[in-house]
Automatic annotation (TrEMBL):
PANTHER family in alphabetical order: ACETYLTRANSFERASE-RELATED, N-ACETYLTRANSFERASE DOMAIN-CONTAINING PROTEIN
Protein name listed in UniProt: Protein N-acetyltransferase, RimJ/RimL family
N-acetyltransferase domain ranges (all copies): 2-159
Transferase recorded as keyword: yes
InterPro entries: Acyl_CoA_acyltransferase, GNAT_dom
A Pfam family the protein falls into: Acetyltransf_3
Keywords recorded for this protein, A-Z: Transferase
GO molecular function annotations of the record: acyltransferase activity, transferring groups other than amino-acyl groups
Amino acid sequence: MFTLRDFQFHDTQRLVEILNDSDVTAFLSTKIPQPYTKADALWWVEEGSKSGLIKAITVNDELVGCIGVNRGEFEYERSAEIGYWLAQAHWRKGIMLGAIEQLVEDVFTNTNIVRIFANVFSPNDASKQLLLKAGFQQEGVLKHAIFKQGAIYDCHLFSKLKNS
């Protein structure tokens, strides 16, 4: 069983541990500093996690992941991008599927957002399958859209619409 909650000060050490695992961060944005330091974790808890609708994923009150949506701006204000990560020890246990379903339901029920989308690196088959299981549909592939650590990847675009 997992819980979604706000990030707390005592999560900082777990943030450092999890976000220094290259398997966890392989397909995450380079906005996440590498190496990930205690100062980065403190900034995240105190400021970064306060923008958008961002939640810590916990099991027995221990941080195991993160999930959030960031609302678009201007003409994209009714659309939001979802992002997530999970500690490797908790992969393939249904936690992230449940977290996605819970957050999407909360967003569609309590906001005026009508579209949630995700951008997925081409080799990240686990995330593609996860989004499909959560009711997202693949909208397209943006060729050579991602450049990270010297490599170019295609970006697979998935979305879920309110009431679909």
